[in-house]
Amino acid sequence: MKTIKIFDTTLRDGSQGAGISFSVEDKVKVALALDEFGISYIEGGWPGSNPKDVEFFSLMKNKLKNAKLVAFGATRKKNCKAKDDVSLQKIVSSGAKTAAIFGKSWDLHVKHALGTSNGENLDMISDTISFLKSKKLEVIYDAEHYFDGYIHNKKYALKTIKTAVNAGADYICLCETNGGVLPSYIDKIVKETIAEFPEVKFGIHAHNDCGCAVANSIIAVEAGCEMVQGTINGIGERCGNANLCSIIPSLQLKGKYHCVPVRNLKNITTLSRYIDEIANLVPNDSLPYVGRSAFAHKAGIHVSAIEKNPETYEHINPKHVGNKRTILVSDLSGKSNILSKAGELAIDLKKESGNLSKIIKAVKEKENDGYQYENADGSLFILTQKIENKYKDFFILKSYRVSVEKTADGTIVSEATVKLDVNGKEEHTVSEGEGPVNALDNCLRKALIKFYPEIKNILLTDFKVRVINSDANTAAKVRVLIETKDKKHSWGTIGVSENIIDACWQALSDSVEYKLLKK
What we know:
By secondary structure, the chain is an alpha/beta fold.
């Protein structure tokens, strides 16, 4: 099994993605998580570019247990000496033992971006690498725009690689910087380049502008590259970088390469979601391997086959990457979907049960009204319990009222009043909140907490509103989805109404009822 070095650039190239900004504290958390997962190299940033990265490298000294911390930078400025370049001096003083230095491999960039001669560019590459090697640093040379350079001027592109090799670079990383080269070209160029330098260790750095970054990275490894650069979840500038959450399991589970410790691979889904949380990004449910929909099955025929043999519609066991199979219930559902979901929710539902057809019919009628149970297991559980005559009323709504007041000084106050019948006793409570939904949620909890103290441990973690029939304008129906969790589990509930507050009430009350029913 061939070992592939995984080089993570989430904290540098990934942070250049739109809407992403890591604080110093965020960067430390990400670096430690990557280190624990088993990443080989962690590129922390560019010490010469901003004070935040300088502080990060200072905080990270001797913090990593497994990975090598990498400082990023460019070749020296034109017409000067590397030893006099302030940016390179900051790399040396950063404390990192490895430097990743990018230089130009495409003569078009030499002329238009650097504004210098091809010869001076070669001197910049050589002088920079030689200087860093003299300081006992490991040097990874990122050959920027290498593939475009090779296509347009093969002789010069190869000359830049030879210059870096002769200067002592430990790795040469071939960068597909514009993300516009297709896999067949990557395969051909990597093989031809390695043939020119058979003793050199090569890597690949791909961008996703054509949607080929993962494929290009994998095919480069198959062509002989020993290092892959990328980011968690593929975040990065423009369309993003190569997604390590797809590359690592593909190479390790399918290509028989060793990327991270085998025992750690099952943690990749957790890592993916942790990085999204720190970056304040909504997780992409459709990501391969780690997305919530990666092993989700909706069509009845698929579910029926999965129940007999998971290999019919799953390319790997989701447990290998720490994910799980999800059976979706919708208006497309058949008996297999409902039975499978019942088992998942611990509902004792038999195939021969007369209620099975009733549940399917109810789901389809509800979905026709705008409900969607794919992410609302809590509300689905309540629906099935009602049909199975196993439902219990923990409280009955008598009335609620919500008001929002804005004063002249701009202060906004939201207040909710709720009247409930709880075990034959009327509860009348009033609460304020940050908004009408928060006020309603606070009021419901306040009314119930003395009867059901266990609800103090549940927390609303996500809230989504979707307009269903937008052609009705402000009279349109809205769908509200709420995610709730306690110390051990999370569940989704749903509400649908032309009135957004009523839709919220449905989802909020379901979230509490689900907790109580499961108890």
